[in-house]
Design a protein that fits this description.
Blueprint: H1 5-14, H2 23-36, E1 40-46, E2 56-61, H3 65-81, E3 88-91, E4 97-101, E5 105-110, H4 112-118, H5 120-123, E6 129-130
Parallel strand pairs: 2-5
Antiparallel strand pairs: 1-2, 1-6, 3-4, 4-5
Length: about 140
C-alpha cells in the first residue's frame, strides 16, 4: 500500500483528534475490515470496567501467516488514520499470532490452532460481545 505525500496530507487533515473516536464503534469498523479480508470467527468484546488496560478486545482467525501480517499492517494504518494511538504490537516467530495495541483497542490475529491454545474468549468470558454489523 503506497501512499503519496499528497494523499498523506489529505488524510491527516481529515483525522479526528486523538481519543475522540469511540472505541466500541471503531471496533465494529475493524471487525468489518477483518470480514472483508476473509478473517474467520471474529469476536469483539467490550472489556470496559473489566480490563484496566483497554476498552475493547478483538480476536480473529486468519488463514495464513501472510494474511495475518498484511492485516496487522492494514489495521494499524487505518486505526492511526482514525485517530487511535498505537502503543505497539508483537508477534511470534512463525506469525501464528499478532497483537496490535491501539491503547483503547487490542486486536489479536491468530492462526486457528494457536487461537484455540490461548482461548482469549474464555479469558474475557464475562465481557459482553460487540455485534459486528453486516456491510451495508
Amino acid at each position: 500500500m503506497s501512499t503519496s505525500a499528497e494523499d498523506f496530507l489529505t488524510r491527516s487533515e481529515q483525522r479526528p483528534e486523538p481519543g475522540t473516536t469511540d472505541p466500541v464503534a471503531y471496533a465494529k469498523e475493524i471487525g468489518l475490515l477483518l470480514k472483508d479480508r476473509h478473517c474467520e470467527n471474529i469476536v469483539a468484546l467490550d472489556v470496559r470496567g473489566i480490563s484496566p488496560l483497554t476498552q475493547v478486545v478483538i480476536v480473529a482467525s486468519g488463514t495464513s501467516d501472510r494474511q495475518i501480517k498484511a492485516l496487522a499492517a492494514e489495521v494499524a494504518e487505518e486505526a492511526a488514520a482514525a485517530g487511535f494511538s498505537s502503543y505497539g504490537g508483537d508477534h511470534d516467530g512463525a506469525t501464528t499470532w499478532v497483537v496490535l495495541d491501539l491503547v483503547d483497542i487490542m486486536v489479536h490475529l491468530f492462526e486457528p490452532s494457536t487461537r484455540a491454545h490461548y482461548d482469549l474468549e474464555m479469558l474475557w468470558g464475562d465481557a459482553p460481545k460487540i455485534a459486528i454489523p453486516a456491510r451495508s
